[in-house]
Amino acid sequence: MTIPQLSIFIENRSGTLITVLNVLKQAGIQIIASTIADTAEYGIYRLICSEPMRACEELKKAGVAVALSGVFALEIDDQPGRAADAVKTFSEAGISITYMYSFLLRGKGILVFRTDDNDHAAAVITSNQLKTIDESALTALV
Amino acid sequence: MIWNPNKECMSRDEMSALQGKRLHKIVEYVYHNVPFYRNKLQELDIRPDDIQTIEDIKKLPFTTKKDLRDNYPFGLQAAPQSQIIRIHASSGTTGNPTIVGYTRKDIGVWSECMARCLTAYGVTRDDIFSVAYGYGLFTGGLGAHYGVEHIGASCIPAGTGNTEKHLKLIRDLGITGLACTPSYALYLAETMDKLGIRKEDIKLRVGAFGAEPWTENMRQEIQERLGLKGYNIYGLSEVMGPSVSYECQMQHGSHICEDHFYPEIINPVTLEPLPAGQSGELVFTTLTKEGMPVLRYRTRDLCSLLPGTCDCGRTAVRMSRIEGRSDDMLIIRGINVFPSQVESVVLSMPEFAPRYMLVVDRVNNLDTLQVQVEIRQEFFTGVFDTPAAVDQLEKKLAAKLKSVLSIAAKVQLKAPGTIERSQGKSAHVIDKRKL
Question: Are B416 and A63 in contact (CB under 8 A)?
Answer without folding.
Answer: yes
